[in-house]
């Protein structure tokens, strides 16, 4: 309960990396978008956009719009660390996903 913001940072990194690498591997395995007509920026940009759409709305809303409705024990430093961790996790998840996809596929 009395966690340090670095705990939120590490949790955000791990969650972002796992979600993004799962999207990258899954979409490259399924061939979404189709391999012949899409360049690599499109094939990596779509999983990144989907993972960002999944990971970032709730913390950003708690940080900005829903500031009055969040818990009293949730500090701004915790949310900042969580958002930074998720950004780092998305970047690392792309690298991890591409690496695993080239090994597995």
List the main descriptive attributes of the protein structure presented here.
mainly alpha; 0% strand; 105 residues
Largest sheet: none
CA radius of gyration: 16 Å
The overall pLDDT, averaged over residues, is: 90
Shape from CA axes? elongated
Given as residue ranges, the uncertain stretches (5+ residues, pLDDT < 50) are: none
Distance between the termini: 42 Å
Organism: Paraburkholderia piptadeniae
Protein name: Transmembrane protein
Transmembrane segments: 12-32, 44-61, 81-101
Keywords: Membrane, Transmembrane, Transmembrane helix
State the gist of this model.
The protein has a domain at 44-66 and 73-105.
Task: Give a description of the structure.
The protein is mostly helical and 105 residues long. The chain has a domain at 44-66 and 73-105. It contains 4 helices and no strands. It has helices at 5-30, 40-55, 57-63, 76-104. Helix 1 crosses helix 2 (40-55) and helix 1 (5-30) runs parallel beside helix 4. The longest helix has 29 residues, at 76-104. It is elongated. The chain starts with a helix and ends with a helix. The relative contact order is 0.26. The model has no long low-confidence stretch (mean pLDDT 90).
Q: Would you spell out the secondary-structure blueprint of this structure?
A:
Elements: H1 5-30, H2 40-55, H3 57-63, H4 76-104
């Amino acid at each position: 309960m009395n966690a340090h913001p670095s705990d939120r940072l590490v949790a955000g990194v791990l969650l972002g990396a796992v979600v993004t690498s799962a999207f990258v591997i899954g979409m490259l395995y399924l061939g979404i978008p189709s391999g012949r007509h899409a360049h690599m920026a499109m094939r990596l940009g779509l999983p990144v956009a989907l993972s960002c759409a999944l990971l970032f709305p709730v913390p950003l809303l708690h940080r900005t719009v829903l500031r009055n409705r969040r818990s009293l024990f949730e500090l701004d430093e915790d949310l900042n660390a969580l958002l930074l961790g998720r950004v780092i996790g998305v970047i690392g998840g792309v690298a991890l996903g591409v690496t695993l996809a080239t090994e597995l596929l």
